[in-house]
Task: inverse folding
């Protein structure tokens, strides 16, 4: 969708792609998307956890001449070399223990369309070499197979790491970096576009109200003030999770009030008012503190104290969750009060 802004047609909040924003940095991103989407070169999307890199990748695909062909996604996190090769190129029956049948592989599944590799920075150096070879040859040979098959696809990758620093540290191949980054797109953090928070809040309220069959009459000024000043370390994903929680807790037909916000969203005033009655700020913070501790503790236990997995579910960065654990005094059972693995 296009909106006339400043005399120039630029993509607006994108109900077409669910990329929401009218801030200057997002207008710049929309312009880049429109231009880069039309070409067939590789794209590297960079940005913090939760900014919407996967939505940007899908938008590039839908703006491209390949839009009618498949969009296939592969998350490279936690894939060892063998599993990465099998997922990308496929395997034949008996290629390794557990290979009970032929597997087509995602590269062949994406033939004619777009292959999106998320968290590409997590690939080991040997897997990076295989990816580079594939990009150069556009040829697939399944693990354990002899026959190679040509494919024709566009590759888009994403990372939340600084790959330039990874290249310097020799944990990421320089030749692969330049091969992936024919075009580079940086998705801004939510902190860089706070003026988009009300648009996003409205979008998520509409979505979750419909999902839960409720009517939500908007957001109170006090609650919006808190949402606007929060740092959003988990970016749009964290905001999305927060609004879903608020919609669930808000009575049908009412507006979201400050007292349903999570503990981590510290109020901008010492006390909030609910139904005209002043609520003591310290008591409110204490109750939210207990609620946040309980949610994080249950999430960590569900993921067997894998901090990275828990952070992804909570919609915040691993560093952000680490800080919360220290602040809340949470630590893995059987260890001293310091962060355990993840």
Result:
């Amino acid at each position: 969708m296009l909106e006339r802004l400043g005399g120039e047609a630029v993509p607006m909040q994108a109900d077409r792609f669910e990329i929401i924003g009218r801030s200057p940095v997002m207008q710049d991103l929309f312009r880049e998307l429109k231009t880069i989407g039309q070409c067939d070169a590789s794209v590297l999307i960079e940005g913090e956890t939760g900014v919407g890199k996967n939505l940007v990748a899908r938008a590039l695909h839908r703006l491209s001449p390949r839009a009618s062909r498949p969009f296939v996604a592969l998350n490279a996190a936690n894939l060892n070399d063998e599993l990465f090769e099998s997922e990308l190129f496929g395997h034949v029956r008996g290629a390794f223990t557990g290979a009970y049948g032929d597997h087509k592989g995602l590269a062949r599944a994406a033939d004619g369309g777009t292959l999106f590799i998320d968290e590409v920075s997590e690939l080991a150096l040997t897997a990076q070499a295989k990816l580079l070879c594939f990009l150069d040859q556009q040829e697939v040979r399944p693990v354990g197979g002899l026959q190679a098959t040509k494919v024709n696809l566009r590759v888009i990758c994403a990372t939340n790491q600084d790959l330039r620093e990874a290249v310097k540290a020799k944990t990421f191949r320089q030749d692969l970096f330049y091969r992936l980054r024919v075009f580079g797109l940086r998705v801004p953090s939510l902190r860089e576009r706070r003026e988009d928070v009300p648009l996003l809040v409205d979008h998520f309220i509409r979505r979750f109200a419909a999902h839960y069959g409720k009517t939500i009459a908007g957001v109170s000024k006090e609650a919006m003030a808190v949402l606007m000043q929060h740092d959003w370390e988990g970016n749009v994903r964290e905001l999305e999770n927060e609004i879903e929680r608020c919609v669930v807790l808000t009575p049908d037909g009412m507006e979201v009030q400050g007292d349903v916000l999570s503990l981590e969203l510290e109020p901008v005033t010492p006390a909030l008012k609910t139904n005209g009655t002043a609520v003591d700020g310290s008591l409110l913070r204490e109750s939210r503190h207990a609620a946040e501790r309980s949610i994080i503790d249950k999430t960590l236990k569900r993921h067997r104290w894998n901090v990275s997995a828990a952070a992804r579910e909570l919609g915040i960065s691993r560093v952000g969750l680490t800080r919360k654990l220290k602040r809340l005094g949470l630590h893995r059972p059987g260890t001293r009060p310091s962060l355990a693995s993840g």
In short: Residues 281-302 form the longest helix (22 residues).
